[in-house]
Write the structure tokens for this entry.
Amino acid sequence: METKLEVRPKVELVVQHSPEEVIARIKAAIEENRTACRGTVLGSTIEVGVPPDERHFWSPQFSLQVEPHEDGAIIFGRIGPQPHVWTMLVAGYAIFGFSSLFALFFAYSQWRLAQPMWALWVVAAGVALTGVIYGTARIGQRLGADQTDHLCHFIRDTLVASTETERVAA
């Protein structure tokens, strides 16, 4: 398991196919393997996820952007939770982060006015709750690790298998 501190790990892959070919191959693989992965293609953006019957709260989603590269195409990707889960995590970070910041300013005011600085407890609670959200996200990553590996292998196998087929045919 990875030890990086990324909540939404990124992927960068250079392939020897044109962007149009990459998109067509992934789109065809999604349509052929509906039981393995589900996805949508809109322009040069690809979203790949697990089928609804296998999906749970921490199921990952692979967001890919395909762009031209001197060697063919470059694929930029982010692996993360479903959008509603990601929104909830970001909202939690924002709420507890801004609350802690506001409480810190309030504690400074209390200190300057020689009053009891009870707002520091709010700062500590906000930092602790932000840590809880981060820990929850890391646990979610572990719970969705098998599905994440499955999605990564699906993309890699789709692009590598098609390259090997071309080499054999040539």
The domain at 1-170 is CATH 3.30.530 (Alpha-D-Glucose-1,6-Bisphosphate; Chain A, domain 4). The chain has one domain: 1-170. Residues 20 and 73 are 9 Å apart (CA to CA). Confidence is low (pLDDT under 50) at residues 162-170.
